[in-house]
Amino acid sequence: MHLPDIRRVFLIVLDSVGAGALPDAADFGDAGAHTLRSVADSDRLFLPNLRRLGIGNIDGLGFLGTADSPGAAVCRLGELSRGKDSTVGHWEMAGVVSPRPLPTYPDGFPQEILDEFSRRTGRGVLCNLPYSGTQVIADYGEKHMKTGKLIVYTSADSVFQIAAHEEIVPVETLYAYCEAARNLLVGEHGVGRVIARPFTGQPGHFTRTSRRHDFSLPPPQDTMLDALSGAGYDVISVGKIKDLFAGRGITQKYATSGNDEGMRVTAKIAEKDFHGLCYVNLVDFDMLYGHRQDVEGYAAALSAFDRWLGGFLPKLRENDLLMITADHGCDPADNSTDHTREYIPLLVYGKSALPVNLGTRDTFADIAATVTDVFGVDFPCAGRSFFGEISDIRVHLAQLARQAALRAYCPYSGFHVGAALLGKSGKIYTGCNVENGAFSPSLCAERTAFAKAVSEGERGFVMIAIAGGKDGVISGICPPCGVCRQVMQEFCAPDFSIILAKADGWEEYTLSDLLPLGFTL
Ligand code: THU
After folding, report:
1. Beta-carbon count within 10 A of 508 CB
2. Are 54 and 347 in contact (CB under 8 A)?
3. Which of 351, 370, 422, 465 is most enclosed, with most CB atoms within 10 A?
4. What are the tens digits of pLDDT across the range 364-393?
5. Taking the model in full, what pTM does it have?
6. DSSP three-state, residue 237
7. Which atom of ligand 1 is nearest to the CA of 417?
8. Between 3.40.140.10, 2.60.40.2970, 1.10.720.60, 3.40.50.2300, what CATH number should domain 394-514 receive?
9. What residues flank ligand 1, with Cβ below 6 Å?
10. What integer is the mean pLDDT of 60-77?
11. What whole-number percentage of the chain has pLDDT above 70?
């Protein structure tokens, strides 16, 4: 069984919704950080839809409540890049690993940068510190008006911001100064964004105008967005995606004011025919709640997303794939307002995608590898595609057999066996061995599965997966006993496929391999 050709992938980034500290979190001052666990402390967290999809089945997220039969493939992804900001996170999920974080300037920019900036603009500089955007114009606006010097400031993020009064520096000129800064701030000083911050008004009553403009650092290499759009696919940006990629590889963009508009726009896009990727960033989790240490607000925003998801899932078509993930953490209950170095959760839902547990994986770039694989676009990157796993029924059956083995009733032998049997109707029947003190009435796992299926009316079979081991530990294969082979002979054709699962992977045989010259009446 394979997925139908996928036409649309929705990749939704819940900004900062981290899934627990990465092994190297202490290097970033984030040992023990866990955004989702902190948010789960709030009574306002209600995630029935994400739970049904299997968010609680992700390694380390059991506290959210596991689903017995999750609707989505799930995993958590580690970050190879040495950073924890949105830009680096989105670049890695688009296939570009950054060996260094984007630079930040808690003590202001170095003098040589400012000197060169002044030389290129012909204007001096005021402030040069991390500052609140409204406070900086209140404190330096008047001096700026008198001297014509530019107000340069930063924040905890990798930004070079230039504030100027619209009557002192016309907006177009301010943009040109930003371009000059952008050209200057590359390499070691390649800040994520240079931002024009025009303002107006009189001393004591300055206000910022709406003509803010961001000049983003372009990704250092081609991303999956370039690969997809280069191959003729649509790449639709919703929210700040276009800024994070400096517009590169994007064919259509929708600016949004926050989560509500982002979700609304995404639902509208789902009504359209497009062929390619719709890449969405929902920024409020990070901007409004993570940085402001607001656990309750964070929980309410996540619950609102879950509610929206309940209405969005039914809109998805047979050949759509939905991925829900994050870009870094921002634990609202730790002792800083800063981002946190965390795993990101990933849920992959499609009407015919298999809900396999993909475990813990090394890099966000698995997303890029998978999305490009889905569309058959060649894009070598650090990630590994899991498209085969979510579209190959054998992976799913082997996993179900391993899980069934955990349910074995085997107090006498201590030998656990599980089976997962695929009927021609498409239904899957699982079974485990069920022992009995009078040994002979014991049931094997395979025959339990066959008995369930046949008694439900199923008569034709495609494939069975079998997993087993002493004390429930599955290492090598567990071939079926002679009696079970004979039962297969009763109901199955010689090419019936038998998957003997190992801890990871399997060996595949046909019934005629395992029972040549089988007896039939
Ligand atoms: N068992 C199976 O469930 N399937 C087989 O094909 C081989 C054996 C079980 C039966 C018994 O509960 C335990 O393994 C030890 O024989």
Report:
1. 13
2. yes
3. 465
4. 999 999 999 999 999 999 999 999 899 989
5. 0.84
6. strand
7. 3
8. 3.40.140.10
9. 410, 413, 415, 417, 433, 435, 442, 444-446, 480-481, 484
10. 97
11. 99
